[in-house]
Amino acid sequence: MIAPKTATVRVDLPGRAYDIHVGAGLVAQAGHHLRPLLRRPRVAILTDETVAQAHLAALEAGLAAQSIEAVSLALPAGEATKSWDGLARATEWLIESRVERGDLVVAFGGGVIGDLAGFAAAIARRGIRFVQMPTSLLAQVDSSVGGKTGINTAQGKNLAGAFHQPVLVLADVALLDTLPEREFLSGYGEVVKYGLLGDAGFFEWLEINGPRLRDGDRDARLEAVRRSCEMKAEIVMRDETEQGDRALLNLGHTFCHALEAATGYSDRLKHGEGVAIGCALAFDLSARLGLCPQEEPSRVRAHLATMGMRAELRDIPGDLPSAESLLALMGQDKKVKDGKLRFVLARAIGEAFVTSDVPPEAVISVLSDSAAG
Ligand SMILES: O=C(O)C(=O)C[C@@H](O)[C@H](O)[C@H](O)COP(=O)(O)O
Questions:
Q1: CA of 157 to the centre of ligand 1 (A)
Q2: Among 58, 147, 157, 232, which is least packed by CB within 10 angstroms?
């Protein structure tokens, strides 16, 4: 038998280093990867109802193959679970299930489950180790890596949380085969973000290979997940707690978080869809301020269109608040410093930077143009 291809990326943080394994079939091999990390053969799995129905039995079998017992809790799927209620349920379940500090919590799901389970693991018994097993493209390329955990609050996205690094990430690209196309493309918004923020060569590779990736090519998917994780790991190793460079990973997110708040974290706009629109708007803003050539936003939009993705506010179904109200929502952004908004802008594709030197009128006019039509 030919061994399936896998790649490993190391997140080399002092005292908290961990591996990200990317490959097909990692769910079946979960026991093999988790066994050396366990003090006793028992794990607690936090997942959602959709993932549990599709993949939990396979994960339990992969763990049982190494005689690891699993208890599990499946929460409702969707962004609404990333809430105080969801956090209370997950944390109290861990405590009721007698999960000890020396045990492992397994976050088995997309970004919502990864962020929520990581936060619950960070606070239950003041900190339990956890493993990320991301099941969506978005979680595989982004949210499972780097230790940002948290929930949304009434005031906005991810406003309560903790930095809590996982001890291992297992990204099984075979799981992407069952993702609905909309879900896959939402994750692709984060993949494009990496090319746009720091690697023009990767963006060019996506321009060529994006459609293959969307259509299910395993090798192309593995490479996109590997390169995204590698780029994220490099940034996280330089700046774990976002004092500087890590804010680059927020390209598109200042717009996205305001749009998610404005659409009530509903199915009208998925996170990665908002990131893709936010990236297009960040390039518009950069061009409008004379920071990058006018052709760059058009190139970003052309690629999103090739992939069948939205790039404008007017593409979001239903009404949106005014540009001024969206700007006010951005005031809750975690990058705000001394009361001033900071944006991730770009000098070119692959050359992002952070600046607070952005006139509000320019933001309003970019938002208004994107909404009109
Ligand atoms: O890991 C990071 O750092 C990121 O900014 C990655 C983002 O893509 C991700 O959505 C993150 O959760 C957003 O972080 P936030 O601090 O802006 O809420």
A1: 10
A2: 58
CATH top class, domain 6-178: alpha beta
Q: Are 137 and 184 in contact (CB under 8 A)?
A: yes
| Strands 42-48 vs 6-11: parallel, antiparallel or unpaired | unpaired
* Ligand 1 binding pocket, CB closer than 6 Å: 142-143, 146, 148, 157-158, 190, 242, 246, 249-250, 253, 334
Q: How far is it, in rounded angstroms, from Cα 233 to Cα 227?
A: 10
Best CATH choice for the domain 181-371 from the list 3.30.530.20, 1.20.1090.10, 3.40.50.1240, 1.10.3720.10: 1.20.1090.10
Q: Which of 60, 79, 183, 190 is catalytic?
A: 190
Tens of pLDDT, residues 252-311: 999 999 999 999 999 999 999 999 999 999 999 999 999 999 999 999 999 999 999 999
Rounded distance, CA 87 to CA 331, Å? 25
Q: In the annotation, is 250 catalytic?
A: yes
